[in-house]
Automatic annotation (TrEMBL):
Mg(2+) binds at D184. It comes from Aquiflexum gelatinilyticum. InterPro entries: RraA/RraA-like (IPR005493), RraA/RraA-like_sf (IPR036704). Keywords: Magnesium, Metal-binding. This is RraA family protein. It comes from the Bacteria. Its cofactor is Mg(2+).
Amino acid sequence: MKKNIKLTQLILGAFLILATGIVEGQNVGSSPEYIKALTSEWKGERFSDGRPKVSDQILERLKNISIEEAWGVLRNKGYQNQYEGNWQIMLEDEAMTGRVVTAQYMPLRPDLQNQIKDQGVNKEGRSPKGGTNSWPIDILTNGDVYVADGYGKIADGTLIGDNLGNSIYAKSKRGVIFYGSVRDQEGLSEIKGFNAWHKGQDPSFINQMMLTSINAPIRVGRATVLPGDVVLAKKYGVIFIPAHLVEDLVITSEVTGLRDEFGHQRLREGKYLAGEIDSEWTEAIKKDFLDWLNKYPGKLPMTKQELDNYLKERNY
């Protein structure tokens, strides 16, 4: 009997320790360990917060990829819920790419908001001044894109105005993607280089909504977004790309673009029939394509070594 009592006490003690750890672990901002677990398929360099550090070169090359090409590559790999469209865009003719920092907002509930403020300020060292909607901005670095789920709220759902917009651009040299709204769009438009994809704009201040998490998984319309995803934002929509897929997506899309350019040129020249270009290529067309690549008049978007390695592994 004493052994059973002792065993019960040990189990209860272990449970209390575990429960205490769970309560203490409910951070506003996700831990590096959690972000690494979410993005475990990424094998490259990471930031100190755990997010994948996709190279600036890949981010720059991604700007030239079409939304349709990126969507097609992801869909073929089983990622069918990474696109969201129907945005209001500040600079619609300028593409934006970057590494995602996520934030989630919910309708205000006072007891939860009090816990979030206590956790953020007293245990995570976040700023006690201003609203919690400044917290995601405080952690931005160059190349980051602030992506927020504002649950589509427009009036009283404005996550930033021009003051916070200036801070965002100063830190990230990018802009924002909000499933919600902004205020003072006229002031935001005066921030040179700043861009925004959002669902609406309104003169009201943020009201009756609260920040609930930073760098946790969020939903943006049709898309599921993780911290450290790479975003491709254009006037035709927004694609959120898992970090471990972005390099392959870029070169696959680049080669697809070259194939299309070659095919269109040969069709205009009348060298091949449309059915020959649209179906699996014959060995003669493949050889013609390789010869065309070797004489390409402009600068290839990838290195010759990258191209050779890619073509070796694909039946194009």
